[in-house]
Design goal:
The chain has 557 residues and is α+β, with helices and mostly antiparallel strands. It has four domains: 171 residues, Multidrug efflux transporter AcrB transmembrane fold (Up-down Bundle), CATH 1.20.1640.10; 107 residues, 2-Layer Sandwich (Alpha-Beta Plaits), CATH 3.30.70.1430; 91 residues, Alpha-Beta Plaits, CATH 3.30.70.1440; 74 residues, 2-Layer Sandwich (Multidrug efflux transporter AcrB TolC docking domain, DN and DC subdomains), CATH 3.30.2090.10. It has 17 helices and 15 strands. The strands form five sheets. Strands 5, 6, 13, 14 and 15 form a five-stranded antiparallel sheet that branches. It has a four-stranded antiparallel sheet with strand order 2-3-1-4, covered by helices on one side. Strands 7-12 form a two-stranded antiparallel ribbon. It is elongated, with a radius of gyration of 36 Å.
Length: 557
């Protein structure tokens, strides 16, 4: 039982968003199939033709599940997206086949013969159309790298579904047409049975409703015939127009942004906060509380969860996770909320912060990242600062981070070797003493049952957290003093102790030191376009031989 003033909340649950995404895709598949059948009925104006061709959709999808199972696919976002895309393709072959069968029957052929002759007549054309779609999607499935892993199930599922639809169009569709398809005769007498009479009446009323559409389509068909005739008589003008449209399309394509994946609204925001190195936890907590107040004022915020110094993070770093209500219950998207929060938080002094949608962002890869590599740390640091300045000058680049920033607080002990030698203090002994008192030393092991634990002794945190505390440490001297067996020297007498900060970690890649500069992307900008712009400016820098500036992370994909 929990105490009355405590409660348990779920602060992170990706399964909800995944379930909602899959449900939305399935809904789109259902409505897509239904709308496809309705459109077919509008053009064919015959219920039998519509049902026969419409059966190709569920039949092909269910049959595709068999191939998906053989290859170990699951019903995930990519495979369901493939099926939703294929819904419109699955019915194409069946429509072509059934239209040709209908034409043969209208010319007087018996249904069975019409189905056989019509299918054989257009078989090659339908196969060519289908396999042209297959050869488009198969290369997508076999792309290399991370993109290939994402789109393998997508490409293979579309290819399987289209091939299955071809088989259905050559088997199920002509079989049903030979037995059920009839030439339209809307002047027939109504059936005798009551239920059939009602259905017949409803069907004819629907035909009357869509009759204006059919008349409009017939007029458009006549206009198209006239346009086609004009085009055949003015071939040069048609070719010139097509060339202008093609070149214009290529030109307009250069204005399109690019990115690996568009940002989605999962209803989650993550804010990472850093106060200056050496800031204690109470001060960091106060700063983060100010950000929490800003976030709580936004409409749609459902839950705020904060951690400070969790895991390996220092006490001057914290993470705020914000859960929003469902997007149908709020006016602003998560990206708009992030932009507004960023503007307000930037007014707070003494903090560095980064906002991102979803669970990503803190300490992980940024949408835009540039890698700088080389041997000499000073040259690498200078080059990294220049690249960081390019980031700051680039519109849309926000939450810029540089992993070579000196953000790890530390106490630097500089020993006066001459003074230490005069007082008989060994340098190794100084280092050993500091390590024992600050980091601790294992003196024995404690055994409980089958488990053993190290017993480590060190000074209390209150006696080793400040420079003055370290300066009071006593170091044993090797000098002999008359009347005293042991001569102890305070560390402050032989060393200079100062508070400073250093780089938290040094990375190496391909046997070279590596620095990274990254940023998030503001709403209205695209990561792929920004990477190209930053990289182009970075390559204009005076890069020494042996040093490399390249894109990395998701931008590399």
């Amino acid at each position: 039982m929990l105490p009355p003033d405590m409660k348990i909340n779920i602060v992170a649950d990706d399964s909800t968003w995944i379930e909602d995404s899959i449900h939305e895709i399935l809904t789109n598949i259902y409505f897509g199939g239904l709308l496809a059948v309705i459109v077919i009925f509008l053009f064919l104006a015959d219920i039998r033709s519509t049902v026969i061709s419409g059966l190709a959709i569920p039949t092909s999808i269910v049959a595709t599940f068999t191939f998906m199972h053989i290859l170990g696919f699951t019903l995930n976002t990519m495979s369901l997206m493939a099926l939703s895309l294929a819904v419109g393709l699955l019915i194409d072959d069946a429509i072509v086949v059934i239209e040709n069968i209908y034409r043969h029957m209208a010319n007087g052929s018996p249904p069975r013969k019409a189905a056989f002759e019509a299918t054989r007549e257009i078989g090659l054309a339908v196969m060519a159309t289908t396999f042209s779609i297959v050869v488009v999607f198969l290369p997508v499935a076999f792309m290399k790298g991370i993109v290939g892993r994402f789109f393998y199930e997508f490409g293979m599922t579309v290819a399987f579904a289209v091939v299955v639809s071809l088989f259905v169009a050559f088997s199920l569709t002509p079989m049903l047409a030979s037995r059920w398809l009839k030439i339209n005769d809307h002047n027939t007498e109504p059936p005798a049975r009551f239920l059939s009479r009602i259905l017949w009446s409803v069907y004819n009323r629907i035909l009357l409703i869509i009759a204006p559409w059919n008349r409009l389509f017939n007029r458009l068909n006549e206009k198209y015939k006239s346009l086609l005739g004009w085009s055949l008589n003015h071939r040069f003008l048609v070719m010139l127009t097509a060339a202008v449209v093609f070149i214009g399309s290529l030109f307009m394509g250069g204005f399109l942004g690019s990115e690996f994946f568009p940002q989605t609204d999962q209803g989650k925001i993550r804010i990472t906060v850093k106060t200056p190195p050496g800031t204690d936890m109470p001060t960091t907590s106060d700063r983060i509380a100010q950000i929490e107040e800003i976030a709580a004022d936004f409409a749609g915020v459902d839950l705020i969860y904060t951690t400070i110094g969790a895991g390996d993070d220092p006490v001057n770093e914290g993470t705020i996770r914000i859960e929003l209500v469902d997007k149908s219950e709020r006016e602003l998207s998560v990206l708009r909320i992030i932009d507004s929060m960023r503007t307000l938080i930037s007014e707070l002094p003494g903090i560095e912060f980064s906002l991102s949608a979803g669970e990503g962002g803190g300490g992980g890869e940024k949408p835009v990242e540039i890698s700088i590599r080389g041997h000499d740390l000073d040259i690498l640091t200078d080059l990294t600062e220049k690249v960081e300045n390019i980031f700051r000058e680039t519109p849309g680049a926000v939450d810029i981070e540089n992993n070579l920033e000196a953000n790890k607080p530390e106490l630097k002990v500089t020993i006066d070797r001459d003074m230490a030698n005069d007082l008989g203090v060994n340098i190794f002994q100084v280092a050993s003493t500091i390590r024992s008192f600050v980091d601790g030393q294992v003196v024995t092991r404690y055994k409980e049952g089958d488990e053993e634990y190290d017993v480590r002794i060190r000074l209390k945190e209150s006696m080793r957290s400040k420079a003055s505390d370290i300066g009071r440490l006593l170091i044993a001297s090797n000098k002999e003093v008359v009347g005293r067996r042991t001569f102890m020297v305070p560390l402050s007498n032989i060393a200079k102790i100062e508070k400073t900060s250093s780089i938290g970690e040094y990375r190496r890649y391909d046997r070279l030191r590596e620095a990274k500069v990254g940023c998030n992307v503001s709403t209205g900008y695209f990561s792929g376009t920004m990477v190209q712009e930053i990289l182009q400016k970075a390559h204009q820098l005076d890069i020494p031989p042996g040093y490399h500036v390249d894109v990395t992370g998701t931008g590399e994909i």
